[in-house]
Amino acid sequence: MTSKRQTQVVDVRAEKGFTSGGESNEILRIASNGAYIANLSNAFDPTREHLDFEIKNGKVVPLNKKTSIGKRIRDNIQARGIKDPNEGLDVPKYRTLASFILGGSQEQMRKLAFGDQTVNYDKGADNSSVTRQKAIENWALDMYNFMAKKYGEENIAAFVVHLDETNPHIHCKIIPVDEKNRISWRKVMVGKNNSRDEYRKSMLKLHNEIYEQVSKKYGLERGEHISETNAKHRTTEEYHAERRAKLKEEVEKLEKEKSDKIDELENLDHSIKHAQAKIKALNTMIFNLQKQIADLQEEISALEADRDAGRISNEEADRRMQRLQAYLNNANEKLLDKNKKLEEAEKELKDIKDKIADKQKESDLLEQKISKGLPLVKKQTFSDMNNIGFENSIKSLRSFFEKYDNLLENSSPEQRDYLDSSVTPLLDNAIFKDIADNAVQLAQISSYLFLGYLDKATELSESCGGGGGPGTGWGKRDDEDDEAFKRRCYLMGMKMMKPSKKQSLKR
């Protein structure tokens, strides 16, 4: 039998701006037991998190969760007097970070990481007793030394090794600093000509060098580079957009299932009312039959007394007794039948109640899945919207106070005294109160718009006294990236939060 090829994995992506809080938290496993990491990677195993490590200054050390990757980068370039080319820009424009994922085929990487130990890769399994093998540390150290020699050790902002996912791998963040001590993706990662062909050749060379100097030593073949296979490489933005679309589809599917469960519960509710009415009718019939039997038994007793006292003849007594006894037998048969039907109806009612309890549990479970399925996209989007709102608020406040300062400067002493006494105190509360009152709802509405939940955005807007929906044709434009669309969603959210003219006239 032919063995599977064990190939190396080398993925390089350019990042504009430095690693965000969300990505940094994921890489450093901040709040690894929370919903964020759990949803971010279904293959994440918290019982193997203790095996993760990073390499700092050529040594294997535990993960440093106290300092985010973004702060590490800022501290690094500040100490070296390097300027961030995106500093002061509202939207990062320049590529300032090379993000590497280094690894290999799953079988070989697991062998390096865990040796012959038994590891259960099923979700929820307990692998807390698994230990880290020296081979994975040696591989990571060799890879670190390669990157340090290739790009300069001082430019390695983070070098983190994950052993708690399906396939062990390295996250390496390189600051592309050129010989003039400036950040330049073009010069460091591409070359002088800055062409696609030159970048392709540069990546092919990197692929070959890693194979010759590291991968071959650990049983990993070179493999094929993306430029040789013509495979389409997704950008980070495309990747997250695909994940959001998939997650949204899954959530909508769960919501459909929940809606079906609610319909089933409503049908069962109708059935339980029918069963309760049936039981009530049977109880009434049983009560009437029991009364009828008691009356017949009294008549029989009275008839026997009259016969014994000689008030009627034995023949008359026997004739009437037969008739009463026939009525009594018939009533007893009916009573037995109704009691049996009552028992069946009560069992039916119990079964329906059990079904309702089961359906309710299923509905509750679906609700939990829905609430767990949304946090990654929703929380990240919500955070983005809050950040945009904060940035816009700060800009607005700066602009306002600049104008107000100019007004004060150009006012007469009397006007200035008036403004200081009457207007300035109002500014201390009104603006910030407005932000505090509306920021959360505004970010929520903007998040719904970005994720495509227009009905929910409209509903929340109207519940806050706003003027309703975004109008027909709302959505992301073909020429719009995620950041631009988020900002447009936020601006639309602000518009939706304002009362409509119709509402304003009523006040």
Characterise this structure:
63% of the residues lie in helices and 8% in strands. With 507 residues, the protein is of the alpha+beta class. Strands 1-4-6-5-2-3 form a six-stranded antiparallel beta sheet, sandwiched between helices. A hairpin with a 6-residue loop joins strand 5 and strand 6 (169-174). Helix 9 packs antiparallel against helix 10. Mean pLDDT is 80; it is low at 32-41, 226-236, 429-436 and 502-507.
Low-confidence stretches: 32-41, 226-236, 429-436, 502-507
Q: At CATH's second level, what is the architecture of the largest domain?
A: 2-Layer Sandwich
CATH fold node name of the largest domain: BirA Bifunctional Protein, domain 2
The secondary-structure class comes to alpha+beta
Question: CATH first level of the largest domain: which class?
Answer: Alpha Beta
Work out the helicity level: 55-70%
Report how far apart the termini are: 81 Å
How many runs of DSSP E, i.e. beta strands?
6
Shape: elongated
Taking the sheet with the most strands, its summary is: 6 strands, antiparallel
The percent range for strand residues is 5-15%
Put simply, the count of helices is 16
Radius of gyration: 38 Å
Protein topology:
Elements: E1 8-16, H1 21-28, H2 35-40, E2 53-56, E3 59-61, H3 69-79, E4 95-104, H4 106-114, H5 134-151, E5 156-162, E6 169-174, H6 185-190, H7 196-213, H8 226-229, H9 236-308, H10 314-373, H11 375-409, H12 413-427, H13 430-451, H14 454-463, H15 482-497, H16 501-506
Antiparallel strand pairs: 1-4, 2-3, 2-5, 4-6, 5-6
Helix pairs in contact: 4-5, 9-10, 11-13, 11-15, 13-14, 13-15
